[in-house]
Amino acid sequence: MTPIFKELKRDGSSFARTGELDLNGIRVETPVFMPVGTRGSIKSLSSEDILELKLPLILANTYHLYLRPGTEVLDSFGGLKKFMSYPNALLTDSGGFQVFSLQGLFKFQEDGVRFQSHIDGSYHTFTPEKVIDIQRSIGSDIMMVLDDCAPYGSDRKRLELGLKRTHSWAKKSIDYWSQNPGNQSLFGIAQGGVDPELRIQSLETINSLPFSGVAIGGLSVGESREEFVEILKVLGPHLDASRARYLMGVGTVPDILDGVRNGIDMFDCVLPTRNARNAQVFTSRGKVNLKNESHKFSDSPIDPDCNCKVCKNYSLGYIRHLHKVKELLAFQLSTFHNLHFMQNFMSKLRSEINHGSFTEFYDFWKKLYTR
Ligand SMILES: [Zn+2]
Questions:
Q1: Which of 59, 83, 98, 336 could form a disulfide with 77 if both were Cys (CB 3.0 to 4.6 A apart)?
Q2: Among 141, 148, 195, 268, which one carries the catalytic annotation?
Q3: How far is the CA of 40 from the centre of ligand 1 (A)?
Q4: 210 phi, psi to nearest 5 deg
Q5: Given 11, 93, 147, 258, which residue is catalytic?
């Protein structure tokens, strides 16, 4: 395992820290928020937009890319980055989480999971080895292992079975990856639902394997905010300082704040892009619903404190109109602004940690973004 993470500065009063990832020469400052490009595009944005936003690291979904365009096409283009003309760093999930969302269309097997495509009903199998091969075709800088994310509300027996599978697959994954590591790093995933004991047990098992980073899976899947924060607090002291720590599928402002406070370096979430398409934008004054009648005549920008190209050039009233009549431009402008907001928010967050003022930053934004 080549180390890809370096810690830079620790907050004095919490587990918050800044650091940097070196992903094949691409430097990613942490804590980092990764926007989601499910099927090889961040919905409504071009790769030029992604570069203009200075996004160093984005996420793509293995399940979707495996079904369409498929590994043959990805291999022929030399991987997803060349296919989409995107030069920065890429992280892919294992596809497992998406398969487990296919209600009634998957079945566990000893060595993996068999499932039916949501597109045409065809049968496929994901094993720990197979999903690494698919991610090699995609060519991501960070690959994730196949894991078993038990649904929220699972009893202890189901959670224990999930851990057994997750840990056995993690060992198979690291063995398979080690035979030919190439320039793609591999992260392990810890599970355990909202059971503190199982959570620690799982994290320590994953910590004991030579992964380049450790992810926390199975949170933000239906548990209450109190349960979510409680598990983060339980895990904070057990996170390995030498490796990057990634909280999967989590990325609202309050969730990022609590994640960072408990030692998380990496986040991903569809909300900033999905909400943008649903006319909700994030601003320095809180969330704004663009469709509100009150914005009808507004010639102000979405966020007077934002210096993105959307806020420099377009009025709230105009963007409201685009959403009301469902013009495609509404998606693009709102998505661009929201990702600019997230970039700016994470950059400020890192700066506050470096200057020893994370607690004040935490309190201010937590209050602004919690109803
Ligand atoms: Zn803006």
A1: 83
A2: 268
A3: 24
A4: -80, 55
A5: 93
Is 265 noted as a catalytic residue in this protein?
Answer: no
* Distance of CA 295 from the midpoint of ligand 1 (Å): 16
Residue 221 CA to ligand 1 centre (angstroms): 30
80 falls within a domain: yes
Q: Are residues 139 and 281 in the same domain?
A: no
Region label for 286, one of left (φ > 0), alpha (ψ between -120 and 50) or beta (otherwise): left
Number of domains in the chain: 2
Shared domain for 25 and 97, answered yes or no, is: yes
What percent of the chain shows pLDDT beyond 90? 98
DSSP string, 238-279: GS-TTSEEEETT--SHHHHHHHHHTT--EEE-SHHHHHHHTT
* Domain interval for residue 352: 270-365
| Residues belonging to the chain | 371
Query: Are 317 and 199 found together in one domain?
Result: no
Query: Active-site residue 111, yes or no?
Result: no
pLDDT recorded at residue 172: 98
Whole-number Å distance, alpha carbon 305 to ligand 1 midpoint, is 8
252-267 pLDDT, tens digit each: 999 999 999 999 999 9
Pairwise CA distance, residues 244 & 171, whole Å: 19
Q: Does a structural domain hold residue 371?
A: no
User: Ligand 1 centre from 319 Cα, in Å?
Assistant: 12
3-state secondary structure of 204: helix
Q: Rg (Cα) of the chain, in Å, rounded?
A: 20
Domain end marker among 236, 269, 302: 269
How many angstroms is it from 105 CA to the middle of ligand 1?
Answer: 41
Q: Is the same domain home to 110 and 208?
A: yes
Instruction: Answer whether residue 249 is part of any domain.
Output: yes
State the chain's maximal CA–CA distance in angstroms: 62
- Residue 104 in this model has a pLDDT that exceeds 90: no
Helix (H, G, I), strand (E, B), or coil: what is residue 29?
strand
**The domain that contains 251 carries what CATH number?**
3.20.20.105
